[in-house]
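To: structure subgroup
Subject: Chain for Friday's discussion

All,

I'm putting the inputs and outputs inline so they're searchable in the archive.
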Amino acid sequence: MRNAYYTNDVYASGIYQQKRMNQILAVVAKYPLNAPIQEVCSLKDAAKAHYLIQSGTVFGKIILIN
């Protein structure tokens, strides 16, 4: 692709987009996002985890463990 750049694993196209993406990534690096864990499920309960996601009531992350 012409004028394409990969900036810290985030794709940006063109010089303006690359500069803007660098600004956004600098803010994210300074103020990391906090993703709260809502539920931890075993793989055998994957159907439950899927149901929770589909319900639209999940705010945090759902973790599947083996």
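Points worth raising on Friday:
The chain has a mean pLDDT of 80.
The chain is about 40% helix and 30% strand.

D.
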